[in-house]
Amino acid sequence: MKKIFLMGRSEAGKTSLTQALKGEELHYVKTQYTNTDDDTIDSPGEYAESKHFSVGLACFSFEADVVALVQAADEPYNLFGPGGRAFILRPYIGIITKVDSPHANVPMVRQWMVNAGCERIFEVNNVTREGLDELIAYLEEDLPKLSMEEAKFKQSLGLNEWDPLPDGVSYPE
């Protein structure tokens, strides 16, 4: 399973998502420090909310296989602008939580994630587990295995290691 790094503002549902992914009973825990285990890194929302701590997000992203921007469907504002993708050298996905909220505006949050550069977006409900199967299937997909020559070739095309080769392009012999 890919190791996922969750970042987002306080109360976006990061810790609940971690519990739901593990099949645990949901219970509120205020994340006071970055928690890490075999397959998740859960960061305090304050890291995303303060420019003084946000550099920590970049550092933690290097320990993960995939970085997830987590935003609740009822978010009142967006913290992650179009340049947020610049420091992330991993696949960057979006996870929209609390999709059942009476104040949910999923299309708006989805657009924020598209603008931030998320390559794929998942809509989940941590309580009912709606959408979790699709996210878990994505996390269970194998990471690409590349030789050094294949990685250098992709870099010469301006691609990341997880990006597919364009149609008609193949690795040199």
Give the number of domains.
Answer: 2
Radius of gyration, taken over Cα atoms and rounded to an integer in Å: 17 Å
Average pLDDT across residues? 83
Structural class: alpha/beta
Beta strand count: 6
What is the first-to-last residue Cα distance?
31 Å
Helix tally? 6
Q: What is the topology, as strand order, of the major beta sheet?
A: 2-3-1-4-5-6
Given as residue ranges, the uncertain stretches (5+ residues, pLDDT < 50) are: none
**Envelope shape:** globular
Q: Which bin fits the share of residues in helices?
A: 25-40%
CATH superfamily of the largest domain: P-loop containing nucleotide triphosphate hydrolases
SSE run: EHEEHHEEHEHH
CATH class of the largest domain: Alpha Beta
- What is the CATH topology descriptor of the largest domain? Rossmann fold
- Largest sheet, strands/sense/barrel: 6 strands, mixed
CATH architecture of the largest domain: 3-Layer(aba) Sandwich
Strand content: 15-25%
